[in-house]
Amino acid sequence: MATLVLVRHGQSVANLANVFTGWLDVALTPQGEAEARQAGAKLRALHFDQAYCSTLVRSRRTLELILEQLHQATVPVHAAEALRERMYGALQGLNKAETIRQYGLTQVNTWRRSYEDAPPEGETLHHTQQRVVAYYEQEIAPQLRRGRHVLVVSHGNTLRALRMQLEGLSVAQVEALEIPTGGVRVYELDSALAIGQMRDL
């Protein structure tokens, strides 16, 4: 059996400021660093063979702190553009509350949660899923088929898109899915990558 662990990065300064982040490269807050360490503490029973993160600093730093907690600093780490957050286009850097006042709650929720509707100049969740799943199939799935234990630290929408694929979620289910900062999900997979067990820590 292989183990796949998905972790959302800890709270970022943009999360704290309530702004659309997307591809903006922002640091973790002190709370975010604490969430990363807490995620690591939850995973102490596991040893990882490979680790993956996005190229954005909030993802890379969260992974670094997790591996420090696990005393597994020698695990090979792969940082990938494909694991970046959904691109929020013209909304990036805008305060969410102010954007709601300008465009209305219904429109903003559609931009944030919809599978097929894109923010202005941004990606749909469907497009995010296509790049994330392609990377998963090319780079991560072969490791899992070898029975290896893999840690992936990424972003809320990226992980929503990947979980849709892994768990066979419907559009309605993925649109309603919320993943907290520092959230940890563990999958036990057989050699065909069928899920034997999954749980949140």
From TrEMBL:
InterPro entries given in the database record: His_Pase_superF_clade-1 (IPR013078), His_PPase_superfam (IPR029033), PG/BPGM_mutase_AS (IPR001345), Phosphogly_mut1 (IPR005952)
Pathway in which this enzyme or protein is active: Carbohydrate degradation; glycolysis; pyruvate from D-glyceraldehyde 3-phosphate: step 3/5
GO biological process, one term: glycolytic process
Catalytic activity: (2R)-2-phosphoglycerate = (2R)-3-phosphoglycerate
Binding site for substrate: 8-15, 21-22, 58, 85-88, 96, 112-113, 156-157
Annotated positions for site Transition state stabilizer: 155
Keywords carried by this UniProt record: Gluconeogenesis, Glycolysis, Isomerase
Primary role: Catalyzes the interconversion of 2-phosphoglycerate and 3-phosphoglycerate.
Family of this protein: Belongs to the phosphoglycerate mutase family. BPG-dependent PGAM subfamily.
Protein name: 2,3-bisphosphoglycerate-dependent phosphoglycerate mutase
Species of provenance: Hymenobacter chitinivorans DSM 11115
